[in-house]
Design brief:
Blueprint: H1 9-16, H2 18-48, H3 60-67, H4 83-86, H5 105-110, H6 117-132, H7 145-152, H8 156-165, H9 181-194
This protein binds heme C.
Heme C binds near residues 63, 127, 139, 154 and 170.
Length: about 200
């Protein structure tokens, strides 16, 4: 290289080794593209894999609140006119202080033939159906025998326990702590009966 005009490396090589220069440029371009792709994946991965599990808004109770039906059914036996509903909501087991589906004891004993599913259905329709109606969050669907069979096989007490105290995405008492234990159990009975 003794010429007075000293050409740069590209200028110098483009005539003698055009293929080499082209390959060099190509490799450089590919390296930049790969770097951009990797950076993008890194950014997406870091964003997408962040856990929301412990966020307050993701607590089962809060989720249940957000996806709860717009209206809740509450039958108060002490409210005027409640007696007209009593026949439709008999449940010997319902606690007298529970806000949902409480028949006066006298009415309940007269209607023992219907006892059980009346209160269970009411609780189910007002609370549990939010998830169990369509199978939200992996909840066993109402009337889905295949989904319920293995759960029913674990025994009523296991199911009661899960319904009362929660199980993974299943919130305690379906996210409605004002339900009495008897109401929740009646709702379990109602769902189990429908899936047998
Ligand atoms: C926020 C949604 C949600 C609501 C509301 C809800 N459930 Fe569930 N439930 C679930 C999910 C999800 C599962 C499945 C839990 C699992 O196995 O991971 C489940 C499972 C169950 C099971 C089976 C438990 C077992 O041992 O396999 C019973 C029984 C049950 N729910 C009863 C109820 C009753 C009764 C109510 C109403 C008072 C109710 N659920 C309301 C989400 C819900």
């Amino acid at each position: 290289m003794s010429e007075p005009h000293h050409p740069g490396p590209i200028e110098e090589n483009i005539d003698s080794h055009p293929a080499k220069v082209a390959i060099g440029v190509l490799i450089g371009a590919v390296a930049v593209i790969i770097a951009i792709i990797l950076l993008a994946q890194f950014a997406i991965g870091a964003y997408g894999s962040r856990s929301r599990q412990n966020e307050a808004a993701m607590r089962p109770e809060r989720v249940a609140e957000r996806i709860a039906p717009v209206a809740h059914l509450a039958i108060d036996p002490n409210a005027p006119g409640a007696m007209t509903n009593a026949g439709a909501a008999p449940a010997a087991a319902a606690a007298p202080t529970a806000p949902v589906a409480i028949p006066p004891p006298a009415a309940a004993s007269q209607k023992t033939a219907q006892a059980g599913n009346g209160a269970g259905k009411k609780v189910f329709d007002s609370v549990c159906t939010a998830c169990h109606g369509t199978g939200v969050a992996g909840a066993p669907k109402f009337g889905d025998k295949a989904a319920w069979a293995p759960r029913i096989a674990t025994g009523k007490e296991t199911l009661y326990n899960a319904a009362l105290h929660g199980l993974r995405a299943m919130p305690p008492k379906g996210g409605n702590p004002s339900l009495s234990d008897a109401d929740v159990k009646a709702a379990v009975d109602y769902m189990v009966a429908a899936a047998k």
